[in-house]
Design goal:
Blueprint: H1 3-25, E1 51-56, H2 63-77, E2 82-86, H3 93-105, E3 110-113, H4 118-130, E4 135-138, E5 150-153, H5 156-170, E6 179-183, H6 189-204, E7 209-214, H7 219-232, E8 238-241, H8 244-257, E9 263-268, H9 271-279, E10 284-289, H10 294-306, E11 322-324, E12 329-331, H11 335-338
Parallel strand pairs: 1-2, 1-3, 3-4, 4-5, 5-11, 6-7, 6-8, 8-9, 9-10
Antiparallel strand pairs: 10-12
């Protein structure tokens, strides 16, 4: 991948994020949810017809997923015309399928779904769509475009690009630098996308991943694989850790090993990571945002769809089919800007 292509992809992602921000701020249009004519003077934030939204997501077994759920609930509470029905979080695909079927039977207006497994939930989502209930797919993508009216994604590839670009800038001219990567669950497409973006960005500046381990997005997993990584590599210049939740274990292993010759970049944007970056008290000096607001954006879009409104500040009418959010880098210089959206690990 060339440097110019990398920059183009980051610009597109930033534009998509800006569009979502415009939506949440409210706007002037009253066209249909699948198209319509913009009309000046209509406030999307103003109360409209009551909207019943069904929301289902995985079990909140780590900080980012907990933040996803709480942000979605908080977003729904902003609107007096929204009734949010929240299914119990689960990592059982069959149970989540039954939750979607309950939403269909209850004839909710829109379903916002963060699937425990995108492929496994695809048919249930298609069933909802065929029943006339729009589905908003969050974070983990379905295997068919027919399964969702709107897809909202974090930019996993862009996370890798952002982390790699930051490391390239820090290690400029050091062609022999040793770069390590601590991934999440290797079988997940999101992990594969993050690693691919990271490798592409490093390649642009003549670097590569010299050592790589994969954890499981848990503190214990992060600590175990990092201990192995450090033992096998007596010299490291930079580390990218994909996930700030598992980063607690990563930093613990680094502390136990007494290593400090390198700097580290995290991923996701946890509150404890941002506070550490601000304090400058560990090797962690940056993290890449993976928005925990995706489901909240889904709630806001679900309301607009059900009320046949348009997304704000766009020339085109209706609601986009696909939104990919930006993956900015948080450093000591800009951490105060991002602290309000940091999630508790």
């Amino acid at each position: 991948m060339t440097a110019s292509r990398t920059m183009r992809m980051r610009t597109i992602a930033a534009a998509s994020a800006a569009a979502v921000i415009a939506l949440l701020a409210g706007c002037s249009s009253d066209g249909g949810g699948t198209g319509g004519t913009a009309a000046a003077g209509v406030d999307n934030a103003a109360a409209g017809d009551k909207v019943v939204i069904g929301f289902s997501g995985p079990a909140a077994d780590h900080g980012w997923l907990g933040a996803i759920n709480s942000a979605a609930i908080a977003e729904a509470k902003k609107y007096g015309d929204v009734e949010l029905r929240v299914a119990e979080g689960t990592n059982d695909a069959n149970l989540q399928i039954s939750q979607v079927e309950t939403f269909i039977n209850d004839k909710v207006d829109v379903i916002v779904l963060l699937p425990t497994d995108g492929a496994a939930l695809t048919e249930a989502a298609i069933k909802a769509m065929k029943a006339g209930i729009p589905v908003i797919n969050v974070d983990r993508e379905f295997s068919s475009t027919a399964a969702a009216r709107v897809t909202i994604l974090g930019d996993n590839y862009g996370m890798g690009v952002s982390a790699g670009t930051y490391i390239c800038n820090k290690l400029a001219g050091q062609s022999d630098a040793v770069v390590a990567e601590i991934a999440g669950i290797d079988s997940l497409p999101l992990t594969q996308d993050r690693s691919r973006g990271f490798a592409d960005a490093l390649s642009d500046c003549g670097l590569k991943v010299n050592a790589r381990v994969a954890a499981d997005f848990t503190i214990a997993g992060g600590q175990a694989v990092t201990a192995q990584l450090l033992s096998a590599n007596p010299k490291i210049d930079a580390i990218w850790n994909h996930d700030d939740d598992q980063g607690i274990g990563v930093l613990a292993a680094i502390d136990e090993a007494g290593r400090s010759e390198f700097f580290m970049v995290g991923g996701a944007g946890s509150l404890n990571a941002m506070k550490s970056i601000k304090a400058g008290d560990t090797v962690l000096e940056a993290t890449v945002i993976y928005p925990s607001t995706q489901a909240a954006d889904g709630i806001a879009l679900a309301r607009l769809l059900a009320q046949n409104k348009n997304m704000g500040d766009l020339a085109s009418s209706g609601i986009p089919n696909r939104i990919v959010l930006n993956a900015p880098v948080v450093t000591k210089d800009n951490v105060d800007e991002y602290l309000p959206i940091g999630f508790a690990s």
